[in-house]
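Figure 6 in text form: structure in, sequence out.
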């Protein structure tokens, strides 16, 4: 009876670590994509940057503002336990546009 409890605990711990790593990846993807847009690069470069950092399953949106740009990135947490629970992580980053406006 103790072995199934240990396996369940191990699965939950691995899901928590996986969620932490996924959160860091979407945060970095949001920051990098916002920097890309703030420099004036094209939207295709933003999508490529998000996929490169957060993975191919990540989704992103771009919200332009008055002299700023906000990028929101979200992704499902990988792994069977996280998938069964439907866990997702999300992050956003806002930066001022560079150069002439």
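Output sequence:
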């Amino acid at each position: 009876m103790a072995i199934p409890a240990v396996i369940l605990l191990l699965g939950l711990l691995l899901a928590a670590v996986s969620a932490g790593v996924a959160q860091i990846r979407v945060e970095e993807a949001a920051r990098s994509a916002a920097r890309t847009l703030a420099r004036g690069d094209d939207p295709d470069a933003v999508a490529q940057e998000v996929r490169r950092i957060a993975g191919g399953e990540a989704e992103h949106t771009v919200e332009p503002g008055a002299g700023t740009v906000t990028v929101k990135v979200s992704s499902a947490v990988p792994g069977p336990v996280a998938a069964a629970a439907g866990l997702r992580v999300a992050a956003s980053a806002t930066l001022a546009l560079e150069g002439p406006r």
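Caption detail: The chain has a mean pLDDT of 91.
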